[in-house]
Amino acid sequence: MEKRKVALITGVTGQDGSYLAELLLEKGYDVHGTIRRSSVDFRERIAHLEGKPNFHLHYADLGDSMSIIGVIAKVKPTEIYNLAAQSHVQVSFDSPEFTADVDATGVLRVLEAVRLLGLTETCRIYQASTSELYGKVEEVPQNENTPFHPYSPYAVAKQYGFWIVKEYREAYNMFCCSGILFNHESERRGETFVTRKITLAAARIKQGKQDKLYLGNLGSLRDWGYAKDYVECMWLILQNEKPEDFVIATGIQHSVREFCYHAFKRVGIELEFHGEGIDEKGIDKATGNVLVEVSPDFFRPTDVVNLWGDPTKAKAKLGWNPNKTSFEELVNIMVDNDMAKVAAEDASQKVRTNLAEYLEKGIVK
C-alpha cells in the first residue's frame, strides 16, 4: 500500500511556500496551505496552483493557536513545513513584539498542536530557520556547530524557534528539524528585499523609469542561493532516516556590491564603484552617471555583515546539490524577470492612458 503523502505548508503564499507546493505536487502529495484572512489578495505566487485537485487552502494564522489546531486536526498531515514568518530583518526592529509572537511562539503553537492531537508518530515537521542566527558571526564559514549570536529581533525570535524544535524532538521523540537557510532569492522574492530591489532598479533604470538606486552597506557579504533549489533540501530533510538540523547554503559568498554589478551587467550597464562607506558610488562606465548611492536610511541598528554557509553535511547526508544554480544564473533569472515586468507595466500604463484619452474625447463610450 502506497504511503500516505499529505503536506501542510504554512506561509504557502510566500516565495518558498509557492516553490515547495509545486515540488510536492509533482511528487504526488496532497498539498494543503494556510493563508491569513485579508481584504487584499496576496496569492499571486500560487494563483496557477489554485483549482488543482490536490491543492487546498485553509485560513489560519500562527498568532492564533485555535486556528492552527483546527487545520492540523482536519488535514492530519504526514509532513508540516512551517515557512510562515515575519521574515524581514529591518521590519523586526520596527515590530519586535509581532515578530516574536509569530516567529517564536508561532513555532511552539505548531509543535504543541501536533503533540496535543496525537500525531507525533505520523507527522514530521520542518521548521524554516535562518542564517541570521549566527548574526555577529564567531567563525566563517558557519556550519551546524557554529555558536549563535543573533543580532536583530528577528534573529532572536528565530533562535527560540530553533531551540523549541530541538526541545520537542528530545522531550517527546518527535520528528522535527530545522533547516538553517542562508539567503535564498528568486524572481518571486518580495520587492522590499535588497536583491529584488537591485534587480528591479536595474530594469527600471535601463528602461528609463528610474534614475538612481539607493542602498545600505555595499560591503555586506552573503551566501546567496536560488529558492527553487533550497525547497528541495527542505523536502530531503524530512525524508532523512532521523531528525537532524541542516545548514542550507551554497558555500560561496558575494557582496551586495557584486550583486549590483552583475544585475546591471545583465541589462548592458557596466558599473564602476568609487569611494568608501557612506561615500561609495556605482557609476555607469559608459556615461559617467551615478546610478548607485549609499543612504544611511538603510543601515540597521545592529547590522550583520558576514554570512557564509557550509553545506557539507547536507551534501553528504542528503545528497543535495547546493550549486545547481550559480550566483550569476540566479541574478540573470531575477533581472530577466524584472525586465519583462517593467516592460509589461509600461505597456499596461500606455493602454490605460490611451483609453482615458479616448474616453475624454468621446471616442469610446
UniProtKB/TrEMBL annotation:
Alphabetized UniProt keyword annotations: Lyase, NADP
InterPro entries hit by this protein: GDP_Man_deHydtase, NAD(P)-bd_dom, NAD(P)-bd_dom_sf
One Pfam match: GDP_Man_Dehyd
Domain of life per record: Bacteria
Enzyme class: lyase
Coiled coil (UniProt feature): none
GO terms, molecular function: GDP-mannose 4,6-dehydratase activity
Function description: Catalyzes the conversion of GDP-D-mannose to GDP-4-dehydro-6-deoxy-D-mannose.
Family: Belongs to the NAD(P)-dependent epimerase/dehydratase family. GDP-mannose 4,6-dehydratase subfamily.
UniProt name for this protein: GDP-mannose 4,6-dehydratase
